[in-house]
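Can anyone check this?
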Amino acid sequence: MLKVLSYPLTCIYYLLFGLTLVIFHPIQWFCFNVLGYQAHKVSVDILQFCLLKCTHVLGTRFTFNNPHHISTEKPLIIVANHQSLYDISPIMWYMRKHHAKFISKMELGKGIPSVSYNLRHGGSVLIDRKNPRQSLPAIMKFGEYIEANNRAAVIFPEGTRSKNGVPKPFQTKGLEMLFKKIPSALIVPISINNSWKMLQYGKFPMGLGTHITFTVHKPLELATFANKKDLLETIETTIKKDIHP
């Protein structure tokens, strides 16, 4: 019965979602080209808030547990498991004071109103995962930008989304590059649960009544870890111990 109800609600959700992206695209353009970075940042923050509100049509709830006072005077490397596209807006909204930027696949850089524009102009980096000659220098330059501007780099080291909530092994090359280019960073591990349930039937219909939770763990000072292998193991263990498929 719940799945039957999800068909009309998914239609309403996609209508609201699409309208939100279309409305905010020219707003972003104006803010970026006329008013500058800070105005563009505000427009993107409001966009994320509206996208979260759209999901309420599906009965989706978000809980973002962050008991830590995280300095805005240092760059961050936010490391999280990845279950769906619905991991992204909550991180951007709830961590907005840290100016979250993403390492995204090249394909997302065009064709999606608002989303593609922000990825191209908002400080994130687009990489071709099949082309190391493009992706590795791009990530290095991205890391330098994060270090210089005290932004937050968000990375999902599984490399691809988990479709059932079970975390995949972490791929560490991207993280290792960020460690080198953002030496003053605080590492912020985040465990994400249940966002995969939004797409448990595929993109249509969508899951109803999903409670998506984010657990922010104690930040780690990158500079205090002489052995980066130990740090990588600590990050992966910390994140995975709070994932409940």
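Reply from J.R.: I decoded it. The chain has a mean pLDDT of 94.
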